[in-house]
């Protein structure tokens, strides 16, 4: 049923210009994070050759995705540490630090020698840089989303926060397009020698711009009020686990985003490799399918978020989950038919339904927790969910398809995560238009 609150509290009175700056500042770090995911996913076969030379193609690809998966288990650690700091010293300081670490690690990957140059040290250094990225990303998302959400008026919070999500999918599209252009322009030898490095090195100027914008902003009104009243949590982690209401919401913060994990890391990050390796699409065909679906979801996300501001978060989330439970298998079946048009149709349908989840999941998580522990609790729940159901997905799916020969394995995974999200949403309370200053 539509959400019809008796009041429409507005937490902040920020000017439109200030809201634009805040949204841009939050989006840039998320852009850098998902730009890396896009290029890593698209370039995975080349990275496998460069860093795991001498292995069979499937084994090297599994190792490449293994590095991708392992780093996600450092996201909860980053969430603990950086979420704690964001609730203790402020959102802005953590945003600046996380972006600096993330940018440095991504750029460093572009400078690493390959296996043929330094041997086993190459994949070890790759793993170290990915761990640094995972740690920084663990604090980046919650801090960026809280930063935008705590500045936003309650009746437009979902819509304004959704632009940060648009930035993440735009980053995936940008990374994929850039990697594809390089692949088309350069020979296979040139790509393996130096071409694959270019997208990673571009993280440096992007990060510098983001640092400049973030460093010039003030912290959120919500956190500033805690500082002025001397009510900042002394130990946000302990307070998160001490409050019964926080514990319940923490469990939901793990369950509700599971569809978010399969969406990012199955429908988009893993998709280029799935289309080329499993379905034997050529690079242009694979890019077409992935790019069209990314454009569709980037356009749809603000519309879904705006709808959730009007009728509530739960109806939109449930529609997304139910739609993907019903349609994921038929959509992946369309992809296996070998037709680009059929594959685009399947990917677009999934992107449309997934936008109902991606557009508002972070608004829901921001609205679930009080300001004193928002970053800590949000980071812990979201990053545990992402580590378990997201980062390992490409590795698990590649292994399962290799073992079973069933190209529909990704569809089963999407259905499973959609069911998990749907059950969690049923247990959750409506949060749309809630006042963050009252928490």
From TrEMBL:
Regions that span the bilayer: 28-53, 65-86, 93-112, 118-138, 159-182, 194-213, 250-271, 283-304, 316-335, 341-365, 377-403, 409-428
InterPro entries recorded: H+-coupled_symporters, MFS, MFS_dom, MFS_trans_sf, Sugar_transporter_CS
UniProt membrane topology term: Multi-pass membrane protein
GO cellular component: plasma membrane
Keywords: Cell membrane, Membrane, Symport, Transmembrane, Transmembrane helix, Transport
Pfam families registered for this protein in UniProt: MFS_1
Compartments (UniProt record): Cell membrane
Domain Major facilitator superfamily (MFS) profile: start-end pairs: 22-432
Entry superkingdom: Bacteria
Protein name as annotated: Putative proline/betaine transporter
Organism: Saccharopolyspora spinosa
């Amino acid at each position: 049923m539509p959400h019809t609150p008796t009041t429409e509290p507005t937490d902040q009175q920020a000017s439109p210009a200030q809201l634009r700056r805040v949204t841009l500042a939050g989006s840039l770090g998320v852009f850098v994070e998902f730009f890396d995911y896009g290029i890593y996913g698209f370039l995975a076969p080349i990275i496998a050759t460069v860093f795991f030379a001498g292995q069979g193609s499937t084994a090297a690809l599994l190792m490449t995705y293994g590095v991708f998966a392992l780093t996600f288990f450092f996201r909860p650690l980053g969430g603990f540490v950086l979420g704690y700091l964001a609730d203790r010293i402020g959102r802005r300081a953590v945003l600046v630090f996380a972006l600096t670490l993330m940018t440095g690690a991504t750029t460093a990957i572009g400078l690493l020698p390959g296996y043929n140059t330094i041997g086993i040290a190459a994949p070890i250094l790759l793993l170290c840089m990915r761990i640094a990225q995972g740690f920084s990303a663990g604090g980046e998302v919650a801090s960026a989303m809280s930063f935008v959400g705590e500045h936003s008026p309650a009746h437009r919070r979902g819509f304004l926060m959704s632009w940060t999500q648009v930035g993440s999918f735009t980053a995936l599209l940008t990374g994929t397009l850039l990697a594809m252009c390089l692949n088309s322009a350069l020979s296979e030898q040139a790509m393996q020698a130096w071409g694959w490095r270019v997208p990673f090195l571009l993280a440096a100027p992007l990060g510098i711009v983001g640092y400049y914008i973030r460093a010039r902003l003030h912290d959120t009104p919500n956190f500033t009020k805690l500082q002025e009243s001397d009510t900042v949590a002394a130990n946000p982690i302990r307070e998160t686990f001490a409050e019964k209401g926080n514990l319940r919401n923490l469990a939901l913060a793990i369950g509700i985003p599971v569809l978010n994990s399969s969406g990012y890391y199955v429908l988009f990050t893993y998709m280029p490799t799935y289309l080329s390796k499993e379905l034997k699409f050529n690079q242009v065909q694979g890019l077409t399918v992935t790019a069209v679906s990314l454009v569709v979801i980037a356009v749809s996300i603000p519309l879904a978020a705006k709808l959730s501001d009007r009728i509530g978060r739960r109806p939109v989330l449930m529609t997304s989950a139910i739609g993907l439970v019903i349609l994921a298998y038929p959509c992946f079946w369309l992809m296996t038919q070998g037709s680009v048009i059929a594959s685009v149709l399947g990917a677009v349908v999934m992107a449309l339904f997934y936008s109902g989840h991606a557009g508002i999941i972070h608004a829901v998580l921001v609205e679930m927790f009080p300001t004193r522990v928002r970053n800590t609790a949000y980071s812990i729940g979201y990053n545990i969910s992402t580590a378990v159901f997201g980062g390992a997905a490409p590795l698990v799916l590649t292994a399962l398809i290799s073992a079973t020969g069933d190209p529909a394995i990704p569809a089963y995974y999407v259905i499973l995560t959609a069911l998990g999200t749907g059950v969690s949403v049923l247990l959750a309370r409506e949060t749309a238009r809630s006042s963050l200053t009252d928490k």
